Amino acid sequence: MAVPTVTEQIEYGSRGISSLKITAVEPMVTRTPVSTLQADEFIEMPPMGSVSNRVGIGNRLDHASPSRFKGHNQTTLVKITTDQGIIGWGEAHAPAAPAVHAKVITDLLAPILIGQDARNIGPLWERMYSSQRLRGYATGFFTESIAGVDIALWDILGKFVGVPLYQLLGGKYRDRIPTYGGGGSPEEALEAMEAGFTAVKMGFSKGVGSDDFERVVKVSEAVGDKGQVLVDSLGAFKLHEAISVGRKLDELGNIGWFEDALMPEDTASYPKLVEALDTAVCVGETLCNRFQFRDLFSERGAEVVNPDVSRAGGVTECKRIADMADTFGILWS
Questions:
Q1: Nearest-angstrom CA–CA distance, 123 and 280
Q2: What is the DSSP track for 202-227?
Q3: Beta-bridge partner residues of 121
Q4: Which of 86, 90, 234, 251 could form a disulfide with 78 if both were Cys (CB 3.0 to 4.6 A apart)?
Q5: Do 315 and 333 contact (CB within 8 A), yes or no?
Q6: Would you call the peptide bond into 46 cis, given omega within 30 degrees of 0 as the criterion?
Q7: φ, ψ at 31 (rounded to 5°)
C-alpha cells in the first residue's frame, strides 16, 4: 500500500475524520539573566545621542533610535492547544516589552483563533493580519505576535501529520545547511573556524569615527582564506558613508556581506548601495512582511536577505518571502 502524501494526509483529516479545533492560545513571557548584568540594568544599543556620539555641522537627527533592553534575554512563547490534545509551540520575537506581545496575542489574536481548525494556517494568517490592516499595524509587535502563533500552528500540523516541517514545506533541497558563528575578535573568529564554521558575523555599528573598521580588518586577517566575515551595521551609516566604508570592505576580499548598512526606512538608497559595491548588501532583519520585501526586491535593493521567522510573520510569511526572493534571484539566509 502506498504511503499517502503530506497533502493527502492533510486532506484526509480535513474531511471530518479527525477534528483539530483550537481550544486555547496561551502566551508565556520568559526571561533568562545575562550573566554580566544585573536584572534591573539596561543594555543600550546604540548609545544615546547618535550612532557614534559625534556632533557636527549638518548632523542629522539621531536615526539610530537607541534601544534599551533589560539586563536579561527575554521572549514570548506561544502555546496552542487543540481538542485532540496536540499542542504546538511558537516564539514571538520579543527582546523588549514581551508583555506587549502577550497582550496582543491574548486580546486580539486568540479570539480569532479559538474554535478554528488549526490546519487552516493560511486563512488564519490572513485573518490575523487583516484584523489590523486598516489600522496600519503591519510590522513590529503585531507581526511578531502573529509569528509566534503561526509557528505554533505549523508545529501542530507537523505533529498531526507526523512529518517534520521541511516536508510540510515541500521537501528538503539539501542534507546540510551552512551556518555562521560569532567572531567579534580575531580570537573568537579563529575559535569559530576551528569549530567548523565557514563564516563569522561581527558588529560594525558604531559608525564613522569609531574603531569599527580596524576591528573588521583584524578579524578579516585572522580568518584569511579559511572563510568569510559578515558585518552587521544596524543602520549606522548614511548612504555616502556606507559607500565609502563599503569600498574599503571590498578590498579586504573575504567580507561575505554588509548587513543593514542604512536606516530601515531608507529603502530608496539601498539600490544605490548595491550598485556601488562588490560586497553583497544584506537586508532583512528589520523588515516584517512580504510587501516590504516586494518593494525591496523590485528595486534591486539587496543581494542577500535574512528575515527573522519569529519576527516576520512566522513560517507562512517567510515562505512567501523566500519564494519571492528566489523569483528575483536574491539569496536567502
A1: 36
A2: EE--S-TTSSHHHHHHHHHHHHGGG-
A3: none
A4: 90
A5: no
A6: yes
A7: -140, 140
For Cα atoms 291, 255, 219, give the angle at the middle one, nearest 5 degrees: 125
Q: Is 111 exposed, middle or buried (CB count within 10 Å of its CB: 0-12, 13-18, 19+)? A: exposed
Task: Give me the domains of the chain, ranges plus CATH numbers.
Answer: 6-168 (3.30.390.10), 181-332 (3.20.20.120)
Strand 331-332's sheet: what is its strand order? 181-182, 199-203, 228-232, 255-259, 281-283, 304-305, 331-332
CA atoms within 13 A on the CB side of 233: 31
The closest of 4, 164, 153 to 82, measured between CA atoms, is 153
- Regarding pTM above 0.90, the answer is no
As a whole number of angstroms, the longest Cα–Cα distance in the chain is 77
Q: Which residues pair with 78 in a beta bridge?
A: 27, 90
pLDDT tens-digit series, residues 61-81: 444 444 555 567 889 999 999
How would DSSP label each residue in 63-132?
A: -S--EEEESEEEEEEEEEEETTS-EEEEEE--SS-HHHHHHHIIIIIHHHHTTSBTT-HHHHHHHHHHTT
User: Whole-angstrom Cα distance, residue 300 to residue 39?
Assistant: 43
Contact predicate 213/248, CB 8 Å: yes
CA 318 to chain centre: 9
pLDDT tens track for 76-122: 999 999 999 999 999 999 888 899 999 999 999 999 999 999 999 99
According to DSSP, residue 51 is labeled S
Rounded Cα distance between 228 and 231, Å, is 10
Take residue 149 and report the three cell numbers written for it.
Answer: 502563533
